[in-house]
Here is the input.
Amino acid sequence: MKINAVELRVLKMRLLKPFRTSFGVQQDRYPLLVRLEIDGRSQWGECVAGEGPWYSYETVETAWQVLKGYLLPAVIGRDLQNVDALETLFAPVRGHHMAKACIEMALTAALAEHARKPLAKFLGGVRDRVETGVSIGIQSTVDELLESIGASLAQGYRRIKVKIEPGWDVMALGAVRERYPEITLMADANAAYGLDDADHLAQLDRFGLLMLEQPLAAGDLVDHAALQRQMRTPICLDESIESARDARQALQLGACQVINIKPGRVGGFAESRRIHDIAANAGVPVWCGGMLETGIGRACNVALATLPNFRLPGDISASDRYWAEDIVEPPFTLQRGGTVSVPTRWGLGVRVKVDLVERLTVRREMISA
Ligand code: SMG
Ligand code: MG
Here is the structure.
């Protein structure tokens, strides 16, 4: 397969509701899309980088520059029979896994289509629906939090993740547990704490959380291991795991008992698979995170989450939780038991609404040899 050219685009899309985490509030999302011209057809992909360097050092701007300046010149015009060839060409570029991932995932979808298989089957998936949950941002009041959780449960979501930060943690989760003693509940701190907060965080143990996601800074594997020794709640790592090496070292250190895999964060499907296997061999479950994706990135996440060791519900909510109108057809909808169905068409499995993408585009550039 030969990538003849790649079109980069940034869209502007309004989230239905602002999303607040420990690092800021987001109302508009600016997804960076790629369209590979590959063997005479188009293959879309999505980069998960955010607008600012908060969740990661990567941003829409850095991904654009690294794609245009380094990654795309290395691959355009080359014959790529598989993803290994792509990874070899990308290897000299240090980091920038989000920029790399969008091309890797688009190429994988094209290879799946070429092999006449749905992406999930091409990846080795074993499920036709995946369990999903919701991620509920930091709210202004406990009443709003309880209301938001109530609405999500009423829609059929079965796992609730609450974003926390210092000042919005023990009290907020305590109120949730009092109202909903039985729900599957977890919390995500997006690196808002330090090891000095260990005693405080250990108070969360009494809420029977499924896990506590990324309490400490991304580079703090050793401190996460120390914190895990001081609390019963399983620690899950998200920002800390950018590669299979990170996963191996985190598990060796005892820094976590669960891993959140986002293919867009770790360089794509192949690296996600390696992390999945390392975790499986260690008896550690993984689940698929989310980055407020459009239907393109969501289709990738759904496909990945069909692998066997994705044993916990993902942050893969339906399209209508984020967007008034998704850019793919059909949109992802919530099905019985709080699940999302896995597309069965070949390749990515959803059709991109090109006219809508066109209307939402705020920046575009064609990169060719
Ligand atoms: O896509 O439903 C989603 C968002 C899930 O909470 C979510 N993602 O740390 O896991 C996380 C956050 C990162 C995204 S912040 C823009
Ligand atoms: Mg997270």
In short: The chain has a mean pLDDT of 98. The first helix runs from residue 60 to 75. Residues 17 and 366 are 32 Å apart (CA to CA).
